[in-house]
Structures are given as structure tokens and as C-alpha cells.
Amino acid sequence: MSARFHPSRATQRxxxxxxxxxxxxxxxxxxxxxxxxxxPSVSAIxxxxxxxxxxxxxxxxxxxxxxxxxxxxxxxxxxxxxxxxTLVPMTRNAIVPVATSINSVPVVAWSPLILLWFGxxxxxxxxxxxxAVSFTVFVSALAGLDRVDRRSxxxxxxxxxxxxxxxxxxxxxxxxxxxxxxxxxxxVRAIIVxxxxxxxxxxxxxxxxxxxxxxxxxFVKVWSAIFVASAASLLFFGLVGFAEKxxxxxx
Amino acid sequence: MIPRRTFLSSLAAGAALLSTALTALPAAAADPVPATLRLxxxxxxxxxxxxxxxAKGYYKAEGIDLTINPGGPNILAENLxxxxxxxxxxxxxxxxxxxxxxxGLPVVCVGISHQLTPFVFVVRADGPIKSIQDFKGKKVTxxxxxxxxxxxxxxxxxxxxxxxxxxxxxxxxxxxxxxGQIDVITATRYNEFYTIKTRMGEEKLRTFVAEDSGVTFPxxxxxxxxxxxxxxxxxxxGFLRASIKGxxxxxxxxxxxVDAVMKVAPTLDRAHQxxxxxxxxxxxxxxxVKEDGLFWxxxxxxxxxxxxxxxxxxxxxxxxxxxxxxxxxLEAIPLAxxxx
Amino acid sequence: MSSTALQPPAIRPxxxxxxxxxxxxxxxxxxxxxxxxxxxxxxxxGLIVLFGVKPWYVPRPSLVIGAILATPEPYVQGFLRTLxxxxxxxxxxxxxxxxxxxxxxxAKVLKELIFPIFVVSQTIxxxxxxxxxxxxxxxxxxxxxxxxxxLTFFPVTxxxxxxxxxxxxRQxxxxxxxxxxxxxxxxxxxxxxxLPQIFVALRLASALSLVGAIVGEWFGxxxxxxxxxxxxxxxxxxxxIWAAIAxxxxxxxxxxxxxxxxxxxxxxxxxxx
Lengths: 251, 340, 273
Hints:
heterotrimer, A: mainly alpha, MetI-like fold, 10 helices, 82% helix, globular, C: mainly alpha, 0% strand
């Protein structure tokens, strides 16, 4: 493989965009001498991240753990439900309305109830994240599985392939890109839902740090936690994307 | 697509027309000034007086068109008042005011609602905790929005290092305490205490009060921004006048006061709100209030509290007390009107 | 049902073959949905009473409905307010999303410069952002709509881009050979072809804009379904929470149904062209 890292033109431009944004931000914050509660400068935020790095790292790991566990749970539920509908088409009219109605209640609306039931520890966040992720993955998986060409299915059937064989050899591989898209989109939601729930009640985590920082009127710390949360989401997103590339590569 | 030049010039013409029309209007006699009051929490009887004043039109009579904005878990009244998003604030307490000034937020305290510490620490009467010393090694939940300072101050005053106590964030629900998972729970006299005693029976509980340890934390502070204090003193006086009137009415007619609150938040429990109002009245009429009137700022108590904060490192340095606390607006109202 | 001469292409398996009676279809679907809902509620009532499920977990539907009917104003007003915030966020987010999707499709440079910023923006937990938004905009409708907009635009951008990029290049070449300019190409081929993908995002966005509105209301609003949820939680009034959840479900389902209906109407006809 190539020994040196050559970023593509697209990556270069992406980095340039971020650099420009940071420059404008810093300029506006410094130039207009904006108070910290309106918009702190990027340099101040980065400094605060360094100062509070231990707290932020611990909180970040805590939130990340909540997000990952909930994510895996939710992804499994979503994919399994979509597969069930594909294998047993009759269940579509039962599962889809139930799933849609549970999810017509916006995810965050469930948090008060979940917090009362499961307390403010990690379990409530597992449940919330699973709830948020499962529907997205379910919708993507179902769309992907539905996309399968009827003729290809008939062709395989004519060769005597059973339901499960068709599922694993034709439907799932065809659905994989859409499932992967759903999985990728859900990574960011997982971290955000974890943080949203934490802000209503938690023992630790980035949402808790933000909550505390607001009360201590430390807005630079709020932004620090936001940056760390952002980085965690990107990390998660990158990890899943990387895993996807490995799996779908053979396509 | 409208060419840009035409769009901009028609916009400018429209603006000119509008401003001419407005200045041509005869000056309307004292249009009510729009203002907002940001509460420190969700609507409940703790704020009954303000809702009564609004319902009875006292603010309108003072020329103020007041909107009451509730607080909530992610809101700090100091922030909103400092940025101008809200005109008045009923904020956490001396601790949040001090912390805000310490961080450079330009807020001014113009009145203090609760003269005594509203927090109590509750344990089971038949449990092993008989004194503050027994808190050592126990599981204590508290809110990190001010009650934690009271707890730490109490422990320190009694010679117990707070690090020896397992202090954790408090749940939304009191169920963990009722179920015995937590040894000490923090409650406000007017809110959570009602829930706990209703579910467990008051005789089964023992409470620890801050004042017994020589600690007082006045809470529910009325704040405005420095700008408002400087440029709109009449607005502040009018607001205080109307609010005091509303509170006196609330004390005189508690049923009507709870009605006013239930109208805004119908999902509240009536019995709970009536209890809340009784307790809040005790807190608001304690100390020097009987002579000096509602919302009085006792500067001696303030100075003691500042020392407490400095010792507990809640603030890094003393704040400018004269700039932070302003009694002139209260003092402009006749004493007879201010007394409960 | 006899197939008509103008048979539209099968967009999804199981799709109705007759697009000429959309109204009847909607009514039938609605009636059936209502009947199922009623049956579920009655069954739930029975099961809860039978198993003695404590109201702390799931209160009987009759209790919840009773709570709403006892004090209907906050629920109705809350519903309307949250609906308004959601609509504002959804419309602005959808328009912005489609616009940026088109811009990024046409100008690769802009896409490479700005799209990563979009991606990063979505990693910012909006609730943390919400604390700041309320500071900047005060307790106004705009603040809530801003949060709602923020959650909505990104999936629309992504899917618009995806849809536009999936257009068959041969069809493009064909139309170009007939002298179609860039704008005509966009209007007549690319956007219609991207429409199914855009609607996938719009269906998702309908839910996200509602989430944004509710979260926005948690920052000290006076009226709204999010406000009712918060009050219920802090008063430990589980019946009130379920009542607010029910209203949210109503709003969410209704909104989603409207978007889905629009999709059925537009995507069918769009594909016809």
C-alpha cells in the first residue's frame, strides 16, 4: 500500500471548509468581543477542553458506552423486524402500524416515562437509544429488502432455493447498502439521544457535564462538551463506516 | 426572479413608509411596556403571587404587559436575564446570583423571596442516622443546582468532610428513597417533602434543617439586568409593586391563588399545591420580613452567605455587593404596602 | 380490480394498482386505521384491568382520555402550538435541504467545501444547542422552529443529493441531445427522478421536526406538548405523561400520514412523466 497519505481533492476541500469556518468563527468572536455566553472563541473552547480533559474524557466514554449498547440493541431489533416481515409477509400489516405508532411519538417524548421507570442510570439511556435507532434501521432495512427484484427471487426459487437461502444469498446482500445507510445515520442519533436523556437525569456523561456547566454559567465548558460530543459522534460514524466498507467491499 | 436592485430599493421604500406612518400616529397614551418574568422552575404554587398579580391585572395597572415564562431543568434565569432574553428573573438563589456575578454576568438582585433555606434533608426516623455526623459513608442524593452547597456547608460546619459522604445527583422521582435505596434525600419544604410524607407518613421521617447548623441560604432571588436597573427604574418599581400586591392577595386567599396556578398548569395536584403555598408563605414571611416587607434583602444574611461561598470555593473572589444588590427599588415602595 | 390501460410502474410491491381513486383509498385506510385503534384501546383497557397493571406503568386508556377531557385546553393549545413549530421547522428544513442538495449536486466544489460542515453540525447535540438558542432568540416561536429546522434539513440534503446522483446518465445524455439546458434537465428529469429519494427523507424529517419542536419546548415554554411532558415528569403524574404522549402520537401520525399521502400522489404522477 502507499507509504504516504495523499488526501484526495475532495478531502482537501473538506478540510479547507472546516478551516475557513473556524477562522470566521474565531474572527467574529474576537473581533466583536462577544461575551462568552453568546459565542466563545474557538481558541477559548479548545483551551477549556484541554483544562477539563479528564472530566470530558470520562464523561465522553460514559456517553459513548450508553450509545453503543443502545445502538447495537436497536440495530438488531430493526433488522430482525424487517427480516420477519420479509419472511412472513402477513406480519407487515401488524408490525408496520405498531412500529409507526410507537415512533409517531417522537423519541424524546418517551424520555420522561423511561426515566421514571428505569431511573437516571445507564439502563434508561440504553432503552432510549435502542428506541431511536431501531426505527431508522427498521425502515432502511425494510426499504432495502423490498427493493429486491421479484424476477431474481423467482429465478432462485425455480432453482429450488428455500426461503432462508433466498434471504441470505439475495435479499440481505441487495438490501445491504440501504441497511448500511440506515446504520450510518443512526450512529449520530445514538449519541445525541443519549445526551438528550442525560440532560434530564444522569449520574455522569456529556449531557450531565453540559447541564452542570449551564448552571455554573460556564458556557465555554458547554461548548467544550459539545465539541467532545461532536467528536464522539464522528468517531462512531467513522467506525461504522469503516466496518461497512470492509463488509460491502466484495460488492 | 426579482432583480436584486429592485428588491432592495422597494424594501428601503417600504421601511421609510412604515417609519413615517408610525411617527405620524398620535402618541398612544402609555402603551403597556412588554416584559417577561422568567421563573426558576415549572409553574407551581411556589410562584402563585406572580400568577395572581397577572390574573388580577396588577401588572397592566402598572403599565407592564407581563408574560410569565416558566423555568425548567436546562434553564438558568441569570443567563436569560443577562442576555436580555427575559426582563425579570426569579432565579435559584444567592448561590446562582453570586456565581453569575463571579462569571461576569451583569445581573442585579432587587429582592429575595425565601428568607430561610427551603431545603431539608430527610431520613427515615427508625434508621441509623440520628445526627449530621451519621451522614458519613451514607448515600445522600441532592440537586446540584444549589442544594449541594447547603449540604456541603452543613457538613463542613459540623466538622464532617463532604468527601466522606457519598453524594450523588438526585433522581426525578422520590421512589428510590421511599424504597430504601437511598439513605438521605434532599427535599424542598414545599414540594418533595409533601410527596415523601404523603407516601410514607410524616411520623416515619426525620429532617435536618440548615439553620440548625448555623447555615442560611436565602433562595428565590428576583433579578434584573444592569441595563434594566439603570435605564428602567420605574419598570422595576412597578413590577415589584404589582408582585407584592399579588403575593399579599395570594396569602389572603390561598384557594384563589391555587386556582390561578392550576389554570396555567392543570395537571398539577391541588392538595399538593395548597400545601406548597402554605409552606412558601412561611418562607417568604420569615426573618425581617414582618418589619421590612416582602422580598426584603437582608444584607447581613447576604454577607454571611458570601463568606460561606468563599470558604466552599463556590466563588473565586468576593463580588461587588453594592453592584449586585439593589434595595432602592423596594425602598421606593411605601413600607405599609410591602408588609405582608 | 381490472387493470386500467394506463398502468403506472410498480413503485413498491403491494402498491395499489388503481391511482384513480386516491380519495376513496385514503378514507378507507383512515377508517380501517381508526377501527384498529379503537379495538387496540378496548383490548388494552381490558388487559390492564385483567392483569392489574399499575397506573405507574401503563394507565388504562379511559384514565388517560378522562384526564385529557377534564382539562382539554392545555392539550388542544399545546397540540396547535407544537404543530405550528413543527410545520415551520419542517418547511424551512425541507426547502433548505432540497436547495442545498441541488447546489451541492451542481457545484462539486461547494459540496466538498461545505458538506463536511453539515455533517459535523449534525453531531452537535441539539439539546445542548437548544440552551444556547433560547439565550439568543428568547422564548419565541422562532427559537423552537430554529431547533426543529436544525434537525430537519440534513437528511433532506443527503437524500436530495443521493436522488439526483442516481439519475440514469443515459437519459441525461438523451435529453441533452435534444437540446435540454441545465435548468430544464433539473426540472424535468433530475428532480422528478430524485423525488422518491427526497420523500424518504421527508418522511424521516416529519418525525425529526416534531422532535425538535418538543425539545425546544423544554426550555421554559408556556404552551406545548413538550411542556406537558416535562410538567408530567416533574410532578410524577404518569397519567398526564401518557396523555401528552398520546397527543404527540396523534400529531406525529397525522403529520407522517400527510407527507406519505403527498408522496403517493406526487411520486406516482412524477414517475408517469
